[in-house]
Amino acid sequence: MSNYKNCRWFMPVNILLTFVIGSMLGWLLLIIARPPQHLKGLIIGTCAAGNLGNMLLIILPAVCKEKASPFGDPDVCYEYSIAYASLSLAIGAVYLWLYVYNLVRVFAGPPIDSGNKDVASTDETVTVQEDLTRTLLPSSLSSTNINGKSKVMLNVMKQQLRNFSRHINLKAVDAAIPIVTLIVGGNLLRGLKGSGISLPIVFGIVSVKYVFLPVCGILMVKGAIYLGFVDIADPLYVFILLLQFAVPPAMNTGTIMQLFGVGESECSVIMLWTYGLASVSLSLWSTIFMWLVS
Question: Whole-prediction pTM value?
Answer without folding.
Answer: 0.69
